[in-house]
Design brief:
disordered N terminus, about 180 residues, Hpr_kin/Pase_C, Rossmann fold, ATP binding, two-stranded antiparallel sheet, 11-stranded mixed β-sheet, 13 strands, single chain, mainly beta
Length: about 180
């Protein structure tokens, strides 16, 4: 009897030796040394929305609320980039998010079903929201994470608060940092 096939890895990458994701105190998810090409690409288990060309990448474990947060932001006027799988591409100093063609324009509304929505083809990754970490600071210090070797502003889930409104205004470039 042959063993069942192994599931695909959660990340695919073509990188120049840069970690896909790294944050202070976080482990690097995967590193590969294939080429010295400054163009790198990976697919992350993440949702992504955009506003005015600026994207919010939403990370978190399965069931953490990635799609729900994305839907809340879309209801405010953001545009769906991707749900469940997001293609992250680095080209020089530009970091963009897009959707794999097979799921473009689709988002899962838990307990409702799959929804088909208008979508944005790509946007520049400006913020990352980590739903697996809870913010403890009322006015959080600036945090960054490295994604394909690029620094991106990192935010944690606010405790007991729907963050969609605040994140919407972050994407409007209205966030002040010390």
């Amino acid at each position: 009897m042959t063993p069942p096939p192994k599931p695909p890895p959660p990340l695919r990458t073509r990188s120049a030796g840069a970690p896909i994701v790294a944050a202070e105190g976080a482990e690097t998810l995967e590193t590969q040394n294939e080429t010295a090409d400054p163009t790198q690409e990976t697919v992350l288990h993440a949702s992504c929305v955009a506003l005015d060309g600026r994207a919010l990448l939403i990370l978190g474990a399965s069931g953490s609320g990635k799609s729900s947060l994305a839907l809340d932001m879309i209801a405010l006027g953001a545009c769906l980039v991707a749900d469940d799988r997001t293609v992250i591409r680095r080209d020089g100093h530009r970091l963009t998010a897009s959707c794999p063609p097979t799921i473009e324009g689709r988002i899962e509304a838990r307990y409702v079903g799959l929804l088909r929505l208008p979508s944005c083809p790509e946007a520049d990754v400006t913020y990352v929201m980590d739903l697996d970490r809870t913010e403890t600071e009322r006015l959080p210090p600036p945090r960054h994470m490295r994604l394909l070797g690029q620094s991106v502003t990192l935010l944690y889930r606010p405790p007991g608060l729907n963050a969609a409104g605040a994140l919407f205004h972050c994407l409007k470039d209205r966030r002040e940092t010390p």
